[in-house]
From TrEMBL:
Keywords: Cell membrane, Membrane, Signal, Transmembrane, Transmembrane helix. Residues 110-200 form the Na+/H+ antiporter MnhB subunit-related protein domain. This is Na+/H+ antiporter MnhB subunit-related protein domain-containing protein. The chain crosses the membrane at residues 72-89, 109-130, 136-155, 176-193.
Length: 230
């Protein structure tokens, strides 16, 4: 695509966004007044759906289309990482690297702490996702905890065990499925905030596993063929 064409497309999108923003801003209540229609309606709708956490009600029920955009942005980031960090050209994957060396040499204390913290951290992630409709937290925060928790095995020096625990193809499929389920529920206006939180938690967790996994593959498993410059 030529530079002039890209500029014209950007200008059209920017003009449309500016027009929508201006129209919305002109219709806002005056600052400092006693009228807060959005806040009153948001709280009323949250209580109507039995969601004590108004923020989660706004994110997953009243403005689910915004959350769909955030979901797709994260999914696009994961797909971009998979495409950009794939093994290409002169690169080769050292299939026997982790099997030859096995777990890294780390202190027994660090290894024990890593193994003990893994199930606890996973449990905390599930708790944050499950209680997103009642307390601070939710699918995004819990998904981040879940997606990074299993990588405690790497900190404990056992990368082969981490590879067995997180098969990348399974997480790729699960991420796509979770994103599709969330979009379907949001378009259907299901209003089930706990279910939407769960779908977000699974999608975010899987996306982070894919992102970190691809970086690990580049750093630990991909090598240059003999004789090739690095």
């Amino acid at each position: 695509m030529r530079t002039r064409t890209r500029i014209l497309l950007f200008a059209a999108g920017a003009a449309g966004s500016a027009a929508l923003f201006t129209a919305g801003a002109l219709d806002l209540p005056r600052f400092g007044g006693a009228l807060h229609p959005y806040g009153d309606r948001a709280v009323h709708q949250a209580l109507r759906e039995s969601t004590t956490n108004t923020v989660s009600s706004v994110n997953f029920d009243q403005r689910a289309f915004d959350t769909i955009g955030e979901e797709l942005i994260l999914m696009a980031s994961a797909i971009g990482a998979v495409v950009l960090l794939r093994v290409v050209g002169k690169e080769a994957e050292d299939q026997g690297a982790t099997h030859r060396h096995g777990p890294a040499e780390v202190s027994d204390a660090l290894r024990i702490v890593g193994y003990l913290l893994l199930p606890v951290t996973l449990l905390i992630g599930v708790y944050v996702v499950a209680h997103g409709a009642q307390s601070p937290g939710g699918g995004f925060q819990g998904g981040v905890i879940l997606g990074t928790a299993i990588h405690l095995l790497y900190l404990a020096g056992d990368y082969p065990a981490l590879q067995r625990l997180r098969p990348i193809p399974v997480f790729e499929s699960t991420e796509a499925l979770a994103a599709g389920v969330f979009v379907a529920m949001a378009l259907a206006a299901a209003g089930a905030v706990p279910a939407l939180n769960g779908a977000v938690g699974v999608e975010v967790g899987c996306a982070l596993v894919l992102l970190i996994g691809k970086f690990f593959e580049q750093a630990l498993l991909v090598r240059e063929p003999p004789g090739e410059p690095s």
